[in-house]
Amino acid sequence: MILFLRFQDFKEAQGAILNNEGDLQMLKTIHTPPEDFFCFVTQAFFTNFSQNDLQAIVVVIGPGSFTTLRTVLLFVQSIQFLKQIPVMGIYNENNRSIEALIEDTQFSLDYIKKNATEHVWPDYGSDPNITIAKHFM
């Protein structure tokens, strides 16, 4: 089983389960803040599938919201560390749906293992503006 996560902004989050050949088995879309992502993933997927069946994760690494990407990547890397499974990050410049992304690429377990990296890093698509002075009135 492969978990596929696309959480690029505050407006929409998607998660999917693919079989080891990369075929879509389940897809969920929600509108929730990043702090609820963990609950979304565990309730939506691990109530229907065993965590022991999880063999790989595909996660969109950007571009997107700083908070959203950091939250989902922390979650993904925690699972990667605990389960010692491959994780593959992909860049989704046009914020395409999971269905559209899997039409272009067959995310089979073998493909993910070949393209997995030890760590996945967010690619925000812009520089942070946290150090820019803000003027409040």
UniProtKB/TrEMBL annotation:
Pfam families: TsaD. InterPro entries: ATPase_NBD (IPR043129), Gcp-like_dom (IPR000905). Residues 48-90 form the Gcp-like domain. Gene3D superfamilies: 3.30.420.40. This is Gcp-like domain-containing protein.
